[in-house]
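Objective 1b: paired records.
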Amino acid sequence: MTTQAQRSRPEQLGKRLLREHGEVAISSWLRLWRQPLTNLLTWLTLAIALALPGTLIIMLSQAQGLANQLHTSNQISVFLSLQASTAEGQALSQQWQVHGDIHKTTFIAANDALQQFSQASGLGDVLTSLTDNPLPATILLEPVSDDPEHIQQLVQQLRQAELVDQVLVDQLWLQRMHTLVNTSQMAILILSLMLALGVLLVMGNTIRLQLENRRAEILVIKLVGGTDAYLRRPFLYTAIWSGLLAGLMACSIMAAALAALAPPLGQLAASFSSDWQLSNLGVSEVLLTILGSCLLSCAASLLTVQRQMANIEP
């Protein structure tokens, strides 16, 4: 008989906890809609604070993919002096072809360079009237390594060649872009921490006002033996509901922002001969946003209730 009672006790306790939590969750949800305008402004504030760093993080992560895609098209352009002949340029190109740090060389004679430039610029009539070819022969190099230090060492070696007039590294602007991306990562991290602190303060202030409005109710519950854990429960569910709604609103704001930014960023990528497109929110981003919103709201609720509950004593 005792064994059967002991076996049934955990089941009864579980049912009671489920019932109590369900009642508190429903009552907390209904209480939110007693002041819809005030709560809506709070949720909107939280949503904006979440959407701003979220949108920047998504854009930055996808921009890194674009940078890596462009990174594969690195090239070194070596312009020979005007006095260098076609035979000398071809010989130099073949000499560099067997260089250990160079994957491939392409020699472009001066006349071919002039023809390509006239077709690309549309100035064919003007260029044909020139007595001398102003363009030098060019050797295009594809280095084996993508490491910036190795490329700079290779450039220094190429500049020491006798027939070389100028060496241009097409990847220099990509290195600057990578530096900008890395700097942006740190800036977004700092901004995210600042806005997360703002979420904690806004949610904490909202819970504090609710505690003050229910001070008399809390005093009565404490007088009849109510525990702090029982008193924290409705505020915790209020924070969960608020975090859920704020997270959904943040996802809507982020989706709208990414949809508006996708066309101009796609055109920018097309100018670099890339088919990169800015993707909108995925399921993982939506779940992470909602989870982060709920966790921040719960953390603010627990910290505020724990501190304020000690000041409310019968």
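Objective 1b, second protein:
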Amino acid sequence: MLYRIVRPIATLGLRAFYRKVYLTNAGRIPRDKPVILAANHPTAFLEPCILACFLDRPLYFLVRGDLFGKPIYASLLRGLHMLPVYRLKDGGYGRLKDNYSTFEACHTALAERKTIMILAEGNTIQEKRLRPLQKGAARIALGTLDAQPQAEEVFIVPVGVNFTYADRHRSEVYIDFGQPILASAYLAEYRENNNQAMANLTDALREGMEQHIIIVERKEDDELAEYFHQLYRTDQPVPLWPIVSRSASPLFEEKAIAEAVNKMPAETRQSLLEQARSYFGALEPDGLDDRAIGGGNQAGLVHALFLAIGFPFFLAGYLWNYPPVWLGKYVSDTRVKTLEFKAPVRWAASMGAFLIYVVLWLAVAALAGVFARSLAAVALLLLLGHFALYYREFAGRFRKSLAFRRLPAVRQKALMAERAALLAAFRENYR
């Protein structure tokens, strides 16, 4: 029941928190079958929230056992379809035995043709790489087939979760689903040698996941890859609608850019890095970004008229929605030290603040006898708050484009030429 109540509210929150969610190849997930979605883990808990909200089926999750320490927390988490997995640091070997009940619950859920999501890396780090996988997905899949013969098959679907900026509000998300792996292919081996079968299935899962994740092989190349991802995003502006897209093109292109960087000789990478640093560094003194140079004129008369006409609507939406938004950002900025928790905590805190905020407004309206009108007003103000997000982004692009247009013509041409030269140098090594 709690899952059904929270899901639509969380969906609205995610649609505001992210500029774009690309959800591609979801049709590969078998319907009415036992399924394990095995995903990488770049944030504390946003990827399971996104999948729970935007897939057309209820999901069940395995999460850290230490979150279940108090009965009230355990009850709430179980109401959200979460099951505990205990690690050594959650209570030593004594708690590890508690995992058997979780595994049995997973076996039963899969036998009932439910879908379980597992964060296969086991821990969370924000990087464009796939870390070593835990054997949990293989253990549960093969354990189900062994303990629940009526299940006949368990499908493990590799899932790649990619963020443009995993720690930021209003970024983009690319989630892509791979071809299902049939656990039954490893069952005979599992009955002869448990560990070897689980290792082999985990290796197959890793190969599947790598096909759907943007991977920069060397950490020292993260900066270079990000520069060229920015250039690509400028040339491919993000359409406003729909917020949830089925297009695989952005992920395909960003993967191709990362793969091109991975294949470059060290000297080429170093040369391109110096060239990219020079170009992007030249933008900073004037407060510009790459979109101001390569994104076309976004400071024309039509743009200015839109900003003028839309300002009253922006102001109303911005001011009314500001308190809960500010509170979420404040909590994230002041209480969260770990990068991987920044965005998730900001989103969750803002969602909680919004719920309390709206309830208080409606309670006051009910006491004043204007509940019906206030309900309509709150709905309108929430929509205006969403409009305010786009307005601020549009206004930011307008200001930077205007700043670029006000530069001397010689300076404009020099920046455009430097950008073109950087792109040309990269394309010599692209694909």
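The first helix runs from residue 2 to 17. The longest strand covers residues 155-163.
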